[in-house]
Every structure is written in C-alpha cells, then in structure tokens.
Design a protein that fits this description.
84% helix
C-alpha cells in the first residue's frame, strides 16, 4: 500500500491542475477507506436481497468485506501511520 500511495502522490505532484494530496486530505484518507468498505458491505447485503443470487457467491464477498473491516479496526494505527508516511514523505 505504501508503494502504491507514494507512486500515486508522485504522479499527482506532476499534475499542475490537481496537485498532490494535501495534509487535510491525508488525515481523512484512512476514514474514507473504512467508509468505502462499509458502503460496499451495505451494497453486498442490499444487492443480495434484491437479486436473490447464488448465496455461496455472495457469502465470499460478505466474508471478504467483514474480514477487511475487522482488519481495519485491529490495525487502525498502522493504517494511519502508513498513509501518513507514504504521502507526507514522498
């Protein structure tokens, strides 16, 4: 993740119109990552209830997103540190 974020930040610095990710945006990025996973988790449940697809297929998606949410909660400090390190030092 750190390598991806550093490369992304370096490319943004080259863009005159967009520019690099600012400190205020860096501070919110971990929260946005968590919120995006919650959004996808909500979509999984909603889509399943509407379409009634193969339950085993959706179980895989649901398990993945729940595991990711647990990982985010258990490794929150590491995520915040990694994001800040990758984007502020590059």
């Amino acid at each position: 993740m750190v390598l991806f974020l550093k490369a992304y930040q370096d490319e943004l610095r080259k863009q005159k119109r967009i520019g690099a990710i600012r400190n205020s945006e860096i501070a919110y990025l971990p929260v946005m990552i968590k919120a995006s996973n919650l959004s996808i988790l909500n979509w999984d449940v909603g889509d399943y209830s509407i379409k009634k697809p193969n339950p085993f297929e959706y179980l895989i998606y649901l398990q993945h997103n729940v595991r990711l949410m647990r990982w985010l909660e258990n490794n929150w400090d590491t995520l915040v540190y990694s994001v800040q390190r990758a984007l502020k030092e590059s």
